[in-house]
Amino acid sequence: MIVKNCKLTNFRSHDYFELSCWKETTMLSGENGSGKTSILEAIYEAMRGKSFRAVDKEIIKRGADFYRVELEYKDGEKTTVVYEKDGKKYFLVGDKKAARLPQKYRYPVVLFEPDDLNLINSSPSHRRDYFDRYFGQLSDTYSTTVSKYNKALRQRNELLKSTFISRDAMFSWNIILSRLGVEIWRSREKLVASINEELTKVYQSIAGNDDEVVIKLKADPCGRTESDYLGELEKGFEKDKVLSHTSFGVHRDNYEFWFNNRLADGSASRGEVRSIVVALKFIEADMILKTVGKAPVVLLDDVFSELDEMRQKALVYNFKKNQVIITSVNAVEDIETS
């Protein structure tokens, strides 16, 4: 057990709520709209430093002056998150106050939401966000690089909206995007290759067949060196001015799932798609353990109702060494016997 206790105050619909975890597996049951997901959201925020659902002003309970999350770990360490309605937010950790959750106080989390089951047929931007969050837990450098890239991209896009903007004024931003973009692309390609080493094997262990699954990172081949990346940005200047945004770069990358040498979106059945996503979650937890040296806490948000018995059992078996916190509409007496 890693998480021992979590207290919420003025967090979404909760005036006050306290969760005590006494086992490796904790079940939260209740009707839709009762605030179950909000509890997972609060735990995630205290462990990772930000919500997986929304910005702070959308989280604070209507009419309240603040929200507060207090998370206590089994070893006695505590993390407190406070957000005030004037926009101030801070974390209390290790007897210190910080505007952001320090990296050493962040704990890895594998989050499984019902919407993740639609990952394969979702939009490219949704898949990019998914894998950026995935890879960010494996590498602090990756998260920092993506954040810097997105900030530089916003600056370049703002300049493109200006009436009188020259190529020379754009050059410094092109240099920054080229350096960061190539670094992101190389990291993505390496991490996707690591997933692919295990994906088919793990998928087959769930589905009980010999189907093959591969993720392909679809990126423009012209941007694989900094000089090539820079050249593409400069070549697209006039086009970008008309569009008022940057049309080339890793912010347009896509992740495609291939099933038996065909695009999974359209060729894989609903059950096959779900097995692929479940396999991806198992690999994520394993990669985190091997890379970070910590077994992640697993948050399962009402996904059991979306999976058949075979995949439910696979989840229980593969996450038996992790602390698991589950929400469900239907109460389950003993999840370990599912």
Specify Rg, calculated over alpha carbons.
Answer: 22 Å
What is the averaged pLDDT score?
Answer: 93
Unreliable residue stretches: 333-338
What does the overall shape look like? globular
Termini separation (Å)? 20 Å
What's the number of helices?
10
- CATH class assignment of the domain at 1-107 and 296-338: Alpha Beta
Number of DSSP E strands: 13
The fraction of residues in strands falls at 15-25%
Walk across the major sheet and give the strand order.
2-1-4-5-6-7
The CATH architecture of the domain at 1-107 and 296-338 can be named as 3-Layer(aba) Sandwich
Helix and strand composition category:
alpha+beta
For the sheet with most strands, the description reads: 6 strands, antiparallel
Helix share bin? 40-55%
Examine the coordinates and then state which fold CATH places here, giving the name of the CATH topology of the domain at 1-107 and 296-338: Rossmann fold
Order of helices and strands: EEEHHEEEEEHHHEHHEEHHEHE
The CATH homologous superfamily of the domain at 1-107 and 296-338 corresponds to: P-loop containing nucleotide triphosphate hydrolases
